[in-house]
Amino acid sequence: MSRITQRRRVSHLAAGDATQRSETLAVEEPLEIRLGGVPLTVTMRTPGSDIELAQGFLLTEGIITGRDDVLTARYCAQPDGTNTYNVLDVTLAPNVPPPAVDVTRNFYTTSSCGICGKASLEAVRLASRYAPGDDPVRLTAAALTAMPDQLRAAQDVFATTGGLHAAALFDFADGGTMRAVREDVGRHNAVDKVIGWALEHGHVPLAGSVLLVSGRASFELTQKAVMAGVPVLAALSAPSSLAVDLAVESGLTLVAFLRGASMNVYSRSDRIVG
């Protein structure tokens, strides 16, 4: 049994018959992220790529702006000396001011919603240091419609569980190559993980990139794309009205219902050619 999946016995009912069989489930466990020993947030996630998750979260929350802002990131041992790998402590560089840990920053996030614990509207909308509207990237519709199949082929855990969201980064400076893909029970965690990967590899801001998500395009995912300097966000499912508002405001190209050879482009359609 891995920490990503677990096997469970289930009773399968079909056509009036019941059979016992084993099913593979995606693991969901809490991760507490601390800053300098002070608890900041708890998120329900699929274990794996936790340091990427923490760094992507800190970037998209506006706490850090680059990899050099993080001095160390390590798991914390429990009082009995054991390590559950569910508590991660991040030490910021000396020149990075710590955030005010209050009710607007110290919040619990479920696997389905990353911002529902924030205490005020002011804590939701963040200002990005990057301007995705200035990115001159151009891409073909054919290249976009080829991305979902590449994403699905890379979703190893989804193939066995059917229970994970995914996020992938594609590089149009390199012909639309898929750079990285991450899976998680939380769509916001999958995005934070893949943005954390980009941060680790010096790719932030993500100019010339497409962020593809396996579900819908919510306000939160759109904001994460803007915070990382992503010029194009594509989703397999629907967008929300506030996601479209933010995309228009920031100059981000928002594509949704990306299925087969069709798509809807809600903002900056001039970036899509052919």
Describe the 3D structure:
- The protein is α/β, with parallel strands linked by helices and 274 residues long.
- It has two domains: 29-124, Ubiquitin-like (UB roll) (Roll); 132-271, Cytidine Deaminase, domain 2, CATH 3.40.140.
- Helix content is 23%, strand content 33%.
- The chain contains seven helices and 15 strands.
- It has helices at residues 50-60, 141-145, 147-154, 156-161, 187-200, 219-227, 241-250; strands spanning 5-14, 17-26, 29-35, 38-45, 70-75, 87-92, 107-109, 139-140, 165-171, 177-184, 209-213, 232-235, 253-259, 262-267, 272-273.
- The relative contact order is 0.14.
- The active site is at 113 (cysteine persulfide intermediate).
- Keywords: Cytoplasm, Molybdenum cofactor biosynthesis, Transferase.
- Residues 1-11 have a biased composition (Basic residues).
